[in-house]
Amino acid sequence: MGSLEQVPDPGLFGPESVTWQMHADPMMWIAGVRALYLQALHPRAVRGVLQNSDFRRDAWGRLMRTASFVGTTTYGTTEAAERAGARVRKIHSRLGATDPDTGERYGVDEPALLLWVHCAEIDSYLHVARRSGFRLTDAQADRYIAEHRTSARLVGLDPDRVPGSQRELAAYFESVRPELAAGPEARVVDDFLRRPPTHPLLVPARALLWRRVANLAYDALPPYAHTLYGRAAPAPAVVTRRLRRTGTALRLVPARLRWQLPPKHVLRAVARLGPETRPAPYKSGGRVAILDGPGEGAAS
């Protein structure tokens, strides 16, 4: 009797998920910067970051670690994703922060803080992707949010208490808005994202390239975030056009070339599961009319 052929492990999401297709999009980098801007508006959450790391020296490392976690949980094996989640939970369990006004000491793994970080990330990924031209119906957007109850579980949240649709996500942001403020810690993050330290020879590149990325990410924030930071943004229609142009330009770069960037999560997943599993926008849970705008296509 021959041995059974082992079926490759698709991981926690798999090629049929919206997550699998969307997280390979190059606009996720701009979405990640938007998430940092948004997360910094929760004083208790951003305090936990700044009091446990030298953000100005390690901000790039933090951004890359987040990207690696997202890549592993999206495209890695189930074992790798669960291991990454366990590592994050262990680190968070050891860290705390102190409220400078009250002296209160609290853990960075408080469910309310983990939920804020999670929702700010998922909202940013979805918002930037759709607004830049990644076509998803509302049903597919809801499916994406629901899929990420899985990533919420990995960081220690109860999936049943995590928003699972656009309506629930909007209700969550409405409920948490009174807690948001652009305090001193948020100003540190804002200052870094606008003018990150760099080698003198790279200052021109920072002004030419990075400033555009940071400005676009900031402009894509919700209006209440602009009000809290005290910096205006262009009209929404202008921002949408810029996001569209940027998304179009980045998507012209061949995917296989983009995916060569370390740590090559997508390429390893495709090698594991087969070439037919390559992420692509048109595979996002159903065929979408090619001429429809983001969120307007009807699944056929």
Write the layout of secondary structure elements.
Elements: H1 18-22, H2 28-39, H3 43-50, H4 55-75, H5 78-93, E1 96-98, E2 105-107, H6 111-131, H7 138-147, H8 149-154, H9 166-176, H10 184-194, H11 203-219, H12 223-229, H13 236-251, H14 255-258, H15 265-273
Antiparallel strand pairs: 1-2
Helix pairs in contact: 2-6, 2-11, 4-5, 4-15
| Biggest sheet details | 2 strands, antiparallel
The gyration radius over C-alpha positions equals 19 Å
Question: What's the total count of β strands?
Answer: 2
Mean pLDDT across all amino acids: 89
Number of helices: 15
Global structural class:
mainly alpha
Largest sheet, spatial ordering of strands: 1-2
Question: How would you sum up the global shape?
Answer: globular
